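Lecture 7, part 2: worked example. A protein chain together with adenosine-5'-triphosphate.
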Amino acid sequence: MSKNKLKTEKPESKKPRSSDPNVLKQDKEAEVKVKELVKDERTHKVLGVICLLLSLYCFIAFTSYLFTWEEDQDKVFRYSASILLMDMDSVRVENLLGRLGAFVSHWFFYKGFGIASYLFCYLFFILGVNFVVGRRVFRVWRNLKYILFGLLFISTTAAFVSSFSDFPWGGAMGDTVNHWMIGFLGRAGAALLLLVAGLSWLIWKYNLDFKWLEQRLKSKPKPAVAPAATPEPAVIAVTPMSNNATAAKNNAKEKEKEKENRRTNTLKESNVAVIPPPDEEDELPEMQLIERGSASITLIPPAHTHVPEEVEEEEMEEELEEEEEDPGPLLYIEETVEQTNARRNKKPNAEDVAWEIKPSVEENEDEAEEAPKRPAVQLDPYEPTLDLRDYKYPTLELLDSHNTEKIVQDAGELDRNKDQIINTLKNYDIAIQKISATVGPTVTLYEIVPAAGVRISRIKNLEDDIALSLSALGIRIIAPIPGKGTIGIEVPNVKKSMVSLRNLIASEKFQQSTMDLPIAIGKKIDNENFIADLAKMPHLLMAGATGQGKSVGINTLLVSLLYKKHPSQLKFVLVDPKKVELSLYKLIEKHFLAKLPGEEDAIITDTKKVIHTLNALCIEMDLRYDLLKEAGTRNIKEYNNKFVQRRLNPQRGHRYLPFVVLVVDEFADLIMTAGKEVEMPIARLAQLARAVGIHLIIATQRPSVNIITGTIKANFPARIAFKVSSKIDSRTILDTGGAEQLIGQGDMLVSFNGELVRLQCAFVDTPEVERVAEYIGEQRSYPEAYLLPEYVDDKDMEGKEISLQDRDPLFEEAARVIVQNQQGSTSLLQRRMKLGYNRAGRLMDQLEAAGIVGPNLGSKAREVNVKTEADLEEILNDLG
Ligand SMILES: Nc1ncnc2c1ncn2[C@@H]1O[C@H](COP(=O)(O)OP(=O)(O)OP(=O)(O)O)[C@@H](O)[C@H]1O
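Predicted complex, written out as structure tokens:
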């Protein structure tokens, strides 16, 4: 700010221009670059390649050492590290990798860990692979534990068994430990200790079972039995067990069979859809079961056990190893991201397996809610972004800077304006004590402190005269500037600077923001970036005459959200009656857009569909409130936190709730064509939806009172006005004049938190939006857009008799939900199937007509007449 200030009382004072935005930016950029370099994928790859080469180098050097150590050892002993600096002819070594190879191997083998030194090759190898691939293929900490144990155990054992060999099998480390151990325990004791340590490690790592031993002992006295005599020849093929190998083999087979049986049983019990394992590959398996241990538990998985398809075998193995360490047996279900998505967009139903591990199938459903509290198995917190774990946020390069780095300051212009203001005020006998100027991107704010005794209203009344004398349009007088005790006169700059969205997005304030829905709006007069949280606003009303920057403003908001949010965290509902303004976002339909089921286009342009969509959003809101209530939470943040901690059961309809932002590009048009039908749901959403994460951005060209009604206005505390054509319009939108004085091209007033701030809206051009949309659109997506609940217009259904001939397409699904839950409640259908009240009610009437549920009992749930699913299937078959 200081750079832009011109203080007349101290013209000579030259303060360091520390707050020059350009200077600041350079510092920050330098800092950002180092961080970026460390985080850069390429840096990791280079490190990876170095590690892999090191691994290979050590491997060759060590292996060569095994054969050449005798020849080289003397020389390395004699010259020590200086061998590396000697010339080739004076010392010749036999190691394949020369003097360095001989020295390094000697160092590792002789002075270090002997044969166990090979573990270092492994360590470099796993580090290298992880870095090169760019993700955790091997678990470094886990492996490090094994490597440390291995170094100690292998070197000691090698030293113990090779105490008479000249080769340093155990290295200095092995020798030292071995020496101490023999002294302490004696040779036999040391041997026993090593044996116990080795066996313990094997048992720990591979969970060896000793059943074969038991079986072998049992089977010994029994005579061999001929296959024909076996009661269940298909299950147990009894063969004489002549040796360990056969016994183990049979045992493995038996275990396999037992597993298979258990799997089938468990599946039967838990309604898990049986899906062929991947080797029965006629088509992609829907779900794959990986079973661990015994089957006394029902397993429950999906929403978060997203192990993406490409998970490497190694990683899987490691996961499984980890699970082996967990108490109790487990059964895991793996599903692909597409399945997860499909399931999420679908309502949960009985085929969906639950996801927590419950101790038994018989458990009461109410208790299921409590189940996660029992420490059955520690699961990692749910991570919604794993839905699309490879998703890359758009990069800054996709946006242009529009040569906007510098604010143009014309010292002559500043002086002229200052003199004009002082003279004009003098003409009206208004003396001033002090005047200062702050140069913004489009306007300069002159702040004056009037002399004692001058009435502020006098200056305010001279607005037009001052404008005339400055021969400038768009002068706005702020008398007084709130909280400052000065009077502000905003004068447009002759040369205006554009504010690029790129600049704002690159700013630290935006990058570091932890807001739920950060929107980069523009720059204030003092060049401070204005970044706000849409979730706190909680809705935004934008108005402005045509061509003043509304569409650019909407793009700015949408693009800034796209830069900060993952597709799993945010969905847009786009309403574009003008048909062309938001069409660019079609490319991100499967990532970020929400739509009605069965609709082709996610961007809504037709008024009738807008009404349906708004009502569907109201249903979504109601359903979300039901979920919040059931979870005992007050807002989306608490709810999602609880869900992430796996304290909410998806089988009961709980799911991670993304924020939903409804954007209406031309509200006036909708109100003109649909009136109350649009106004009512918008007003309802505006009143209630903030707590459940639904936020509205509504733009209009015509901010007249019949469009922005009292109800709408009351629920949109945050408002943006671009230039409007009259003071009345300005009052309608901002409750005060001023917007008619703006100069257009993104010059705007924001009324937020009781303050009115003048901003230059950040500029983002259509090709930039297109690039961002393409960048996102090309990445892996959900199978379809986020589905809003179905809304059936009452008018469409009016007069339709309850007829079983003309059943609702969801009839069978509804019947199953009711029978599985044994609860004839309309709200259950609403919740589980994401339906509106009317449709759920009609379904219930049809179920009654089919005899599946009893008659309406008022406030109580209806009785369910069909007790089992098998009975239900019969009824459904009969209905045909
Ligand atoms: N923030 C901005 N910075 C610089 N120029 C801008 C800015 N916003 C808008 N403009 C200029 O104003 C023109 C009109 O903007 P825009 O299309 O957003 O207006 P609009 O209010 O949406 O008009 P309409 O209602 O007719 O669609 C843009 O093409 C651009 O040249």
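The first strand starts at residue 287 and ends at 292. Residues 762 and 860 are 56 Å apart (CA to CA). Keep this in mind for problem set question 3.
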